[in-house]
Amino acid sequence: MSIINENMTSMEMLNILVDKNMEDARKAKERGELVCWSSSIAPCEFTETMGIHTIYPENYAAVIAAKKLAPEFLEHAERKGYANDICGYARINLGYMDLQKNLANSEFPLPDLVLLCNNICETLLKWYENIAYELNIPLLIVDVPFNHGNEVTEENIKYVESQLHDIIHQLEVICNKPFDMDKFQEVMKIASENANAWYEATSLCSAEPSPLSGFDMFNYMALIVCMRGKKECGITFKKLKEELEEKIAKGESGLKGAEEKHRIMWDGIACWPYLSHTYKVLKNKGANMTGSTYPSAWALKYTPGNLYEMAKAYTSMGNNLSLKGQTDLRKGIIEETKCNGVVMHLNRSCKMCDFLQYEIGKELEESMNIPITTFDGDQADPRNYSKAQYETRIEALVEMMEQRAE
Amino acid sequence: MKDRYYLGVDVGSVSSKAVIMNRNKEIVKTSVVQLGTGTSGPKQALDKLFSDTGLSLEDISVTVGTGYGRNSLAYADKQISEISCHAKGINYEFKNVRTVLDIGGQDVKAISIDGLGRVLNFYMNDKCAAGTGRFLEVMARILGVNVDELENLDEHAKNPVTVSSTCTVFAESEVISLLSQETKIEDIVRGVHNSIVNRALALLYKTNVEEDFTLTGGVAQNKGVIRALERALNKKIYVAERPQLIGAIGAAIFAYEAKEERGKK
Predict the structure, then answer these.
(1) Chain A positions in Cβ-Cβ contact with residue B83 (cut-off 8 Å)
(2) Which of B68, B80, B107 lies closest to A399 in CB terms?
(3) Is A58 within a domain?
(4) Does the pLDDT at position A104 exceed 80?
(5) What pLDDT was estimated at residue B14?
(6) Averaged pLDDT score across all residues of chain A
(7) For chain A, how many structural domains are there in total?
(8) Under an 8 A CB cutoff, do B127 and A374 touch?
(9) To probe the interface with A, which of B121, B254, B257 has the most A CB atoms within 10 Å?
(10) Virtual CA dihedral for B186, B191, B196, B198, nearest 10 degrees?
(11) Interface of chain A against chain B, CB under 8 Å?
(12) Domain assignment of residue A359, yes or no
């Protein structure tokens, strides 16, 4: 019997499921079953098929950061020699792993294997390699080459596809049982449906006013990250979609208690240690985050059973596109979600995002005549953000948006 | 009929500036107090204005606050960011200027503006004090001179040194080391001015540095910095008579427009 039901709100479902997923992993660990740590857009279809309990360090690091508990783990990692230039998620997770590795029970159980796909980030390679080395556990990698050109090449797709076959064999050895192709087929179907349900719900941000604030979307993201292979995930997003459609019918905005006067695209990861501050400053100006790269990030479309298409989907991820690909992606988002301003989070943790932002910003300004502001921050390290600087820049952005609307 | 006045108050991190404007959009009086947000500076700036003019808050139709401490002014009708205020203020002083570099106590901003003083885009320094007014204050302290003496010292530099550190703390140790090598203060000061300009150029070059260019903010009072900037850009720089007041002037204009030009568009 499912632990969620139709009478619940999508937010209730979200909270129950996220807790349950973690609880299941802890219990599995106690029973001696396998727990896997995985990067956020890796092919969970394989571990799910094998019944391996998969949990997500990026998500848990964001939770730690949002609860303002990051400094302990960041400082521990830095004392172990990890420079503070390294990604905050990585430092929190590596610090956590080191602090917990000799304890019997962890809230976020330690892994028996790790799985990464570098379609979203290259730091993952060394980060997960270090976990595997420290804990002496298997490391599964899906190595996805960066798309330097405008097209995802055939060679790249085939290279990734061949690794997907390897993963199957590696998991058979690790689990000491054959890979169940029928179950795999079913999981792929669920994962595809869930990805679609996520996109259909979150893309309703294009309505005016938008029924969903991008900051609420950040919260729902936990589910598509952590439970993409489970059907409850899709049930929740279908419910969310119904709720949002109801709000659209009533003309309600996702900004709680405020009128939506402006629509912005948020570029980059959330500033989790100051999520509430970043949201409220925008909300006070009537600015709603309607655009972001997240709705399309998990829209992994492939025919269940077709590993070639699956490899293509994981290779074509937004973060893995050329400068032109990433710029075009944002142009599409700005148009679809009707944004009239852009906020770029210059996230100290993610150099890849930052380096691209300068060029992307320039092109968006020139070709779309849209005002942009940037602010310094970090997805997880609270030391890299200044509230006053954020406030001034958002105010100036809104003033520019207002002047252009005159 | 009682005359109408407009007030712009710019509460910065190290100084407070206030400007009263009349209904003909003319500056009636200005004041500057070298105390910033969280001090008695904003009140002193206002008291000075009112005692000089015989006016009081009751004579003011609209007040606009700007600067780091803009939200601390309980009597302000509106707060507007210093970016928009600097753009507006410089357009009042120089109609032709299209690029503004503002170096304040703890912020550096490069702003592109249009012919009406509207912001086209802007770039600000990251979370670091290098290249700001604070940087000059720290350097002056180590050199044992006042900030306002720096421009004259700079003029006498014969063999300017390079201050290469981009961090205030490291630049401080670099300067201490130069002093211990008995390098002439004038040469160090020139190096410090070049360093602040180099830092600002990184932001400036993100805008389309237009021919008509101005430096504003408290640091623009230092002619050594202006000369360093002119050398680096190889162009003439427009500097307002009171560059520190530009933000407050912009705020006063916004206050004026809120009443006098409302509905005119």
Answers:
(1) 392-393, 396, 399
(2) B80
(3) yes
(4) no
(5) 87
(6) 95
(7) 1
(8) no
(9) B121
(10) 150
(11) 346, 358, 365, 371-374, 376, 384-386, 388-389, 392-393, 395-396, 399-400, 403, 406
(12) no
Q: Does B254 reach chain A within 8 Å, measured CB to CB?
A: no
CATH number at residue A90: 3.40.50.11890
pLDDT band at A235 (very low <50, low <70, confident <90, very high): very high
Structural domain for A140, as ranges: 10-180
Residue B90 · residue B246 · CB < 8 Å: yes
Q: Is B61 on the interface with A (CB under 8 A)?
A: no
Amino acid of residue A193: E
**Shortest distance, CA B154 to any CA of chain A (angstroms):** 32
> What span, in angstroms and rounded, lies between the C-alpha atoms of B223 and B215?
11
Number of H helices, E strands in chain B: 8, 10
pLDDT in tens, B23-79: 999 999 999 999 988 899 999 999 999 999 999 999 999 999 999 999 999 999 999
Residue range B154-180: mean pLDDT, rounded: 90
What tokens does A27 get?
């219990």
pLDDT-derived band of residue B265, with 50, 70 and 90 as boundaries?
very low
Domain that holds residue B144: 96-239
State the nearest Cα–Cα gap between A355 and chain B, in angstroms: 14
**Contact present, B104 and B132 (Cβ < 8 Å):** yes
Q: Which amino acid makes up residue A353?
A: C
Interchain contact, A365 vs B121, CB within 8 Å: yes
- B21 shares a domain with B106: no
Residue B99, classed as helix, strand or coil, is strand
Q: How far apart are CA A43 and CA A171, in angstroms?
A: 13
Residue A396, domain member (yes or no): no
B76 shares its domain with B206: no
Q: Are B220 and B264 found together in one domain?
A: no
* Residue partners of A197: CB distance under 8 A and separation at least 6: A233, A234, A237, A238, A241
The CATH number of the domain where B21 resides is what? 3.30.420.40
Task: Note whether B264 contacts A: Cβ–Cβ < 8 A.
Answer: no
Residue B72 touches chain A, beta carbons under 8 Å = no
Q: How far apart are alpha carbons A187 and B91 in whole angstroms?
A: 63
Q: What pTM value is reported for the model?
A: 0.89
Quote the pLDDT of residue A1.
53
Which residues of chain A neighbour B202 with C-beta distances below 8 Å? none
- Kindly identify which residue of chain B lies nearest to residue A365, measuring between CA atoms: B121
Please report the pLDDT score of residue B263 as a whole number.
Answer: 60
Task: Test B121 with A386 for CB contact under 8 angstroms.
Answer: no
Which of B7, B193, B208, B236 lies closest to B103 in space, CA to CA? Answer: B193
- How many C-beta neighbours within 10 Å does residue A103 have? 8
Find how far residue A119's CA is from the centre of its chain: 12
Q: What is the pLDDT of residue B262?
A: 74
